[in-house]
């Protein structure tokens, strides 16, 4: 186990040992939804006692494949290790999403506007407006 941990990826180490587990056998096919994962993460964030946290983690493990559990741990650690930055991910949503995010720094607003564009009929303009909203903090301009 120490050798695996020294590689620097705790989630991968957990995945390897979970695959060999006899106490909680990993599922072969995932049945967790994103909403359920989000609910488990929220519940976990509200708990302070180790026993309560362990109870939630056991629930997650019983419903997970080895890869599900690995990604759940990465979500907890805030390190998905997908080597994709904000620009790559937002560009995948819409070509103008990153520019809109740079202007407003309001991710929720950008996602909501991109989502609204997905309801536009084919052939109609789907340009995303790049705008800042009132009372939304923006980066200060630097004097050149």
TrEMBL record:
Annotated signal peptide: none
Keywords: Ligase
InterPro entries: ATP-dep_DNA_ligase, DNA_ligase_ATP-dep_N, DNA_ligase_N_sf
Domain of life of the source: Eukaryota
Keyword Ligase: yes
Gene Ontology MF, one: DNA ligase (ATP) activity
Pfam families hit by this protein: DNA_ligase_A_N
One BP term from GO: lagging strand elongation
Cellular component, GO, one term: DNA ligase III-XRCC1 complex
Keyword Nucleus in annotation: no
Residue stretches making up the DNA ligase ATP-dependent N-terminal domain: 2-94
Family, similarity comment: Belongs to the ATP-dependent DNA ligase family.
Protein name (database record): DNA ligase ATP-dependent N-terminal domain-containing protein
Organism of derivation: Biomphalaria glabrata
């Amino acid at each position: 186990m120490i050798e695996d941990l020294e590689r620097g990826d705790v989630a991968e180490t957990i995945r390897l040992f979970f695959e060999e587990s006899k106490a909680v056998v990993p599922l072969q096919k995932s049945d967790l939804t994103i909403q359920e994962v989000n609910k488990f993460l929220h519940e976990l964030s509200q708990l302070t006692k180790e026993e309560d946290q362990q109870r939630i983690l056991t629930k997650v493990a019983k419903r997970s494949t080895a890869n599900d559990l690995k990604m759940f741990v990465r979500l907890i650690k805030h390190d998905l290790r997908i080597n994709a930055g904000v620009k790559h991910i937002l560009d995948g949503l819409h070509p103008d999403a990153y520019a809109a995010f740079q202007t407003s720094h309001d991710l929720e607003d950008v996602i909501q506007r991109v989502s609204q564009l997905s309801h536009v009929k084919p052939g109609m303009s789907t340009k995303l407006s790049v705008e800042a909203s009132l009372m939304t903090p923006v980066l200060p301009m630097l004097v050149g």
